[in-house]
Specification:
Amidase signature (AS) enzymes; about 15% strand; 11 strands; alpha/beta; 11-stranded mixed β-sheet
């Protein structure tokens, strides 16, 4: 049985205090940002080896550490790939080509002098355009932040750079991360479809081999949604494991930052670099960060894995149900002991508190903009409809109408919800469910998608590729694996075991 240590602050009482505490004050906003169109690539070699962009982080790191691959060569290949492909995909808001090449040259000198830092040293990565980047615009895909160029890096960017990663650019998202649809971004598996959101640019860039690793943000499933839609891996870590300092928020008590990559091992490498306590984030957890990549190779024999009950996903797309059943069969073949899990009815009711908390806290962040001339710079939804229409201003204005009593009542419901989640996981080590109710862009009538529950509770959850649809053809499907707080290593290990037994993660779109 998997158990967290007493010092990991994951007991029920401590975790309730940490992840369900009410936030009543409004945060001061650092604001203004730059325009939303990508920078030009500039003098980049457009003949870079295309095969290099298909390397995983682990594969590239092996070559970089042996000096059989140059960081400059790899960076040029990635920038050339972006120049060729991103006009079709629209994954990037800003491409920082000059800064990336300058960093690659520094990395090359360091490695040649024996100063190799580890598996991210020399690896090209990109971050969601909500992450502050010193000297590079941070727009959150909104005209409201048109003038903003941060003077410091977000903690997550700071830690990636400290590991030697090379920042290629900033990735696309819906305005201020609101919504599961990323306007102007296309799914590499079918360019007529969207990659999902809000971390749609991150998932699309990975699927199209334009970057080796990326970061995303997850408030209601916004890492796992696009990861599933684009056939990549996306992890929402335990609440508090990765600092949100220097990141444009939606909701202070629901937001999570996490890694995205093409394999679980790469995701573990990224998490190991970005996780850990940060005194600048008041919700940052004081926990010891394990060596996530070293803990991947774990047998599933005898492991107790819960399977979400069939009635809970009866309204999901038939292809999703089929792929999920096949994935569960693989886990059983690997030796896992399966147990059907039925959630108490009151969890669905309490789960609705997520929406109240989300828009209340978003309204507090946006208040300085709503009460200034910046209010007129939000993307307009007047007379417009469709998934690509931003409704940020409408939503945050609605959030200002929620009373303090209603907000606190929602946080009380959340505490009950977390307690029910803890009880649901007592007889199991992990739980599996479909990540998304349907392939990208296919409408279904599912009332509950079982993604925001893990934001409300703060439990870790990962999406890994588990198949492709046949109708419509060739669209990726995702398997969600979740566990108790700070069992992120276990979630990664189960994902790695499943990935190692299947070939879904090896497929690439023809773009």
């Amino acid at each position: 049985m998997w158990r967290d240590s007493e010092s990991a602050t994951s007991t029920r009482r401590r975790f309730l205090q940490m992840s369900a505490a009410a936030l009543t004050g409004a945060a001061a906003a650092a604001s203004s940002a730059a325009s939303e169109q990508p920078d030009t690539i500039g003098d980049v070699q457009t003949t870079g080896d295309p095969d290099l962009t298909r390397l995983t982080i682990a594969e590239a790191a092996n070559q970089l550490s042996k000096r059989s691959l140059s960081p400059v060569e790899l960076t040029n290949a990635v920038l050339a790939r972006i120049a060729r492909v991103d006009s079709k995909v629209g994954a990037f808001i800003t491409v920082a080509s000059e800064q990336a090449l300058d960093a690659a040259r520094v990395v090359e000198r360091d490695i040649s002098r024996g100063r190799y830092r580890g598996p991210l040293h020399g690896i090209p990565v990109a971050v969601k355009d909500t992450h502050y980047t010193r000297g590079i615009r941070t727009t959150a895909a909104s005209p409201v932040l048109r003038e903003f160029v941060p003077e410091f890096d977000a903690t997550i960017v700071e830690r990636l750079k400290a590991s030697g990663a090379i920042l290629i650019g900033k990735l696309n998202l819906p305005e201020f991360s609101f919504g599961g649809y990323t306007p102007g971004c296309h799914n590499p598996w079918d360019l007529t479809r969207n990659p999902g959101g809000s971390s749609g640019g991150s998932a699309a860039a990975l699927a199209a081999s334009m970057v080796l690793g990326a970061t995303g943000g997850d408030t209601s499933g916004s890492i796992r949604n696009p990861a599933s839609a684009c056939g990549v891996v996306g992890l929402k870590p335990t609440f508090g494991l990765v600092s949100r300092h220097g990141v444009v928020p939606i909701s202070w008590t629901l937001d999570h930052l996490g890694p995205m990559a093409r394999t679980v091992r790469d995701t573990a490498i990224l998490l190991h670099a970005i996780a850990g306590h940060d005194s600048r984030d008041s919700y940052s957890a004081r926990v010891q960060v394990p060596d996530y990549p070293a803990l991947l190779d774990r047998s599933l024999r005898g492991m107790r894995i819960g399977v979400i009950a069939a009635p809970a996903i009866a309204d999901f797309h038939p292809e999703v149900q089929r792929a999920f059943a096949d994935a569960v069969a693989v886990l059983e073949q690997l030796g896992a002991r399966l147990r059907e899990i039925v959630f108490p009815t009151r969890m669905t009711v309490a789960g609705a508190s997520h929406g109240i908390i989300r828009i209340s806290e978003a309204a507090a962040y946006h208040r300085p903009y709503l009460t200034s001339a910046a209010a007129d710079r939000y993307l307009s939804d007047v007379g417009r409809s469709g998934p690509d229409v931003s409704r940020v201003r409408t939503t945050v204005e609605a959030g200002t109408l929620i009373t303090a009593a209603q907000y606190l009542q929602a946080q009380r419901a959340r505490a009950l919800f977390i307690d029910d989640m803890m009880r649901a996981y007592e007889p199991i080590d992990a739980l599996v469910s479909p990540t998304m109710p349907a392939p990208a862009g296919v409408p279904v009538g599912a009332v509950e998608t079982y993604r925001s529950w893990w934001n409300l509770s703060g439990f870790p959850a990962i999406s890994v590729p588990c198949g492709f649809s046949s109708d419509p053809p060739g669209l990726p499907l995702g398997l969600q694996i979740s566990a108790r707080p700070f069992a992120d290593a276990l979630v990664l290990a189960i994902g790695h075991a499943y990935e190692s037994a299947t070939l879904w993660h090896t497929r690439r779109p023809a773009i």
